[in-house]
Amino acid sequence: MVRLTRIYTRTGDEGTTGLVDGSRTPKHSARIAAIGEVDEANSVLGWALLAATGDRAQELRRIQNDLFDLGADLATPASSPDEDFAPSDRALRIAPAQVAFLEARIDGLNAALAPLASFILPGGNELAARLHLARAVARRAERAVSALADEAPVNPAALAYVNRLSDYLFVLARAAAAESGGDILWRPGANR
């Protein structure tokens, strides 16, 4: 269990931050950018959660917890270029089962939705709009994790998780919108 007794440590005053393995990295590094984007996605998900109830709220809380796992994974550099990224007592890693959970939820939600006939506009109701914002922020987090993977080894399950997360949020937003009239369809060139 994590225990924080002090919020400020002054160790980052010189522009670096500590990683799980004890090393320090610049606060503007690709690794810290990815961690920050995942944190922002989690924060926006918390805002979306305020409009969710029941099973949806439970799922979103579970995903928020997984996003902290993802942040811990990204904050733990690979010990070697050929690391297998298996979860262990020494390193908290995103596991394939966490990706499989999202895939199962995507499939379950999507089965009840009409096939897409057009791109859709974010909105429909408050929950759907908040989920679309969370989806867009999750996509940005995915780009940041992908950029980190260009520089350093990244857990493949972490990359898959952040990719599936935006898909899940898209389908969940569609399911939420279906409860109040359905998707708002894009009409290409409608305002020319």
Q: What is the number of helices?
A: 5
Helix fraction, binned, reads: 55-70%
Low-confidence region ranges: none
Q: Determine Rg (CA atoms, Å).
A: 18 Å
Quantity of strands, as a count? 4
Elements, N to C (H/E): EEHHHEHHE
Our count of domains comes out at 1
CATH class: Mainly Alpha
Determine the CATH topology.
Hypothetical Protein Ta1238, Chain: A
Q: Strand order across the biggest sheet? A: 1-2
Named CATH architecture: Up-down Bundle
Distance between the termini: 57 Å
Structural class: mainly alpha
* The named CATH superfamily: Cobalamin adenosyltransferase-like
Q: Which of globular, elongated, flat, extended, rod-shaped describes the shape?
A: elongated
Mean pLDDT: 91
The largest β sheet comes out as: 2 strands, antiparallel
Strand content: 5-15%
